[in-house]
Amino acid sequence: MNMHFLSDLSYLIAAILFIFGMKRLSSPAGARSGNLLAMFGMFMAFAATLWLLHGHILNVGLMVTGIIIGSAIGAIGAWTVAMTAIPQMVALFNGVGGGAAALVATVEFLQHGSIGLPMLFATLIGSVSFTGSLVAFGKLQGVVTERPVTYPFQSVVNLILLSAIVLMGVYLSITATPLPFILLFGGSLILGVLMVLPIGGADMPVVISFLNAFTGLAVAADGFVISNDAMIIGGTLVGSSGTLLTLLMCRAMNRSLANVFFSSVGAAVTEGPSADSIYAGKVKSATADEIAMLLSNARRVVIVPGYGMAVSQAQHAVDDLMNLLEERGVEVEFAIHPVAGRMPGHMNVLLAEADIPYDKLKEMDEINPTFEQTDVAVVIGANDVVNPVARTDPKSPIAGMPILDVDKAKTVVVIKRSLSPGFAGIPNPLFAADNTLMFFHDGKKAILDLIGALKSL
Amino acid sequence: MDPLINSLTIFALAIFVGFEVISKVPPVLHTPLMSGTNAIHGIVLLGGMLVLASAEDLPAIVLGFVAVVFGAINVVGGFAVTDRMLRMFRRKR
C-alpha cells in the first residue's frame, strides 16, 4: 500500500465528515455536533498530510511554529471576543483564510515560475477576500465608517480596476515574470477595499457571507494548483453553500445581491421627510413606573430585541423581566427579525445565552399576525426592522424589506437612547405614532428600571 | 482518468453537494453556518503546509510561513468561535 492511498483515503473520510457536518449545522438540534464532525474531518486531513510529508519535508520547525502561533491567535480571538463582536471576528478569520489562499498560490508561482488559470484565480479572489474582509471587520468594529463611502463613477472605477487585473493576468500567463504578478496581487488587494467601502454597516453580514464563499473558491483553486483533492472539496463546498447562503440572506431582507453591493443603502439620505417634521411635537416619552403599570395589566407582551440590546448586554435583564411578567400571568414572547442585530441569528444567540427558552423566540412570519392581539410590544434598541416606512413608502431605502408589524400592537414601548437613526439612516415614524411611548434610556438600565418599578407596584 | 478531469469531476460534484446540503437552513442558523463553513475553508492551512514543506528560497519560505499562520488562525479560530456560538443554542428548561 503506498503512502498516497492512505492519505487519499483520509481525505475522502474528511470530505464525508465535512458534508455531514454542514448538513447537521443547518438544523438547530444537531448544529453543535455538526461543527465537531467537521472539526474531526479537518483533523484527519491534517494528520494525513503530515503522514504524506513524512520524510521529505523542509522548514519543519518553521511550520510547527507557524501552526502554534496561528492556533493561539485563533483560539484566543475566538474565546475572548464579546458575543456582540462575533460577526467581525468571523470576518477576520475569513479574511486571513483568503490571504492564506492567495499566498499559497504566490509561493507556488515563486517556486515554479509557471502560471495557470487556477493560480491567477486564487491570487485574485484570495486577495479580494482578504482586504474586503478587513474592511468589513473595520466597519463593524467602528474603525472604518459604517456609512457607505461613495464617490462619482464608483462602479466604473472598480470595473476598470478589475479589467486591468484581468489584463495583467493574461500578460502574466504569457511572460510569467514577478513584476506583473506583484501588480496583480496589489491590484486585487485594492479591489477588495474598493468593493466593500461603498456598502453600509447593516449589509456587512451579507458581504461577509459573500467573501466567505469567495475564500472557499480561492481555496478550491489552490487545490487545483497543488493537486490536492481535500482542498478542492473543502473549498468548493464552502464556495457553493456560501453562495446559496448569501442569496438566502438577501431574500430575508427582500433585496437582491446587486442591490446590496451597488445601492449604498445607509448613505446620507437627501430625499424623504426630515426627522424634524416627523418627530416634532409628536414623540411621547414615558417613565419606568408608567410602563411597568402597562406591562402588569397586559395579557400578552411581545419583546422585540435589536442591536441596542446586544450593545448594552441587556439579555440577562430581559430574561429576569420575562420571568417577572410570567409570574404575574402575562404571556411573553420574543419577535426575532431575520436581520436584527449585526448578523442573522445574532439575537437568538444572545437570548439563548441568557437561558431564554428556544420556543419563545418566534420568527417574523409566525409572530407578525399576532401583533394585533398584543397589548404591549417592547422594542429594545431596534430601529429599521420595525420602521413602517418599509411598507408605506416605495421610495425609501428600506422599501419592501419585511418588517415586524409592532405598530399594530395596542401600545408600543420603544427603549432607545435617542431618536438617532439606525443603519439605514432614515427617521422612523413609529417613534411619533399615537400608540408609541418612548423610554429614552440605555437598554440594560431601562430593563432594570422596569424590573424595579414592577416589583414596587 | 486524466488527473485534471478527475479533479474537475470532484469540483463539479462538490458544487451540487454544497448547494443541496444547506438548502433547508433556518435563518436562526445563518450565522453559525457561515462561521462553520468559514472554518472548513481553513483547510487552506493544508496548502500552506504543503508549499512551505517544499519552499527553498527566502521569499517563498517567508510567504509560506505567513500562509501557515493565516491558515491556522482561520481553521482554529473558525471552529472555536462556531462552537462558542452553538453552545448557546442548547435547549433549556
Q: Number of helical runs of chain A?
A: 18
Dominant shape of chain A: globular
Strand content of chain B: under 5%
Please give the share of residues in helix of chain B.
over 70%
Give me the count of strands of chain A. Answer: 6
Query: Could you tell me the mean pLDDT of chain A?
Result: 89
Topology, please?
The complex is a heterodimer of chains A (457) and B (93).
Chain A: H1 3-25, H2 31-53, H3 60-80, H4 86-112, H5 117-141, H6 154-175, H7 178-196, H8 204-225, H9 229-252, H10 257-262, H11 275-279, H12 288-297, E1 300-305, H13 307-311, H14 315-327, E2 331-336, H15 346-353, E3 361-363, H16 364-367, E4 376-380, H17 389-392, E5 411-416, E6 436-440, H18 443-455
Parallel strand pairs in A: 1-2, 1-4, 2-3, 4-5, 5-6
Helix pairs in contact in A: 1-2, 1-9, 4-5, 4-8, 5-7, 5-8, 6-7, 8-9, 12-18, 14-18
Chain B: H1 3-21, H2 30-40, H3 44-53, H4 58-87
Helix pairs in contact in B: 2-4, 3-4
Describe this structure in words.
The complex is a heterodimer of chains A (457) and B (93). Chain A has 457 residues and is of the alpha/beta class. Chain A has 3 domains: 1-55; 88-268, no CATH class; 275-455, TPP-binding domain (Rossmann fold), CATH 3.40.50.1220. Helix content of chain A is 60%, strand content 7%. Chain A is built from 18 helices and 6 strands. Chain A has a 6-stranded parallel beta sheet. In chain A, helix 17 (389-392) links the parallel strand 4 and strand 5 (411-416). The radius of gyration of chain A is 25 Å and the shape is globular. The model of chain A has no long low-confidence stretch (mean pLDDT 89). By secondary structure, chain B is mainly alpha-helical. Chain B has a domain at 27-87. Chain B is 75% helix and 0% strand. Chain B has helices at residues 3-21, 30-40, 44-53, 58-87. In chain B, helix 2 packs antiparallel against helix 4 (58-87). Chain B is flat. Classes of the chains: A alpha/beta (457), B mainly alpha (93). The interface between A and B is large, with 112 and 81 residues.
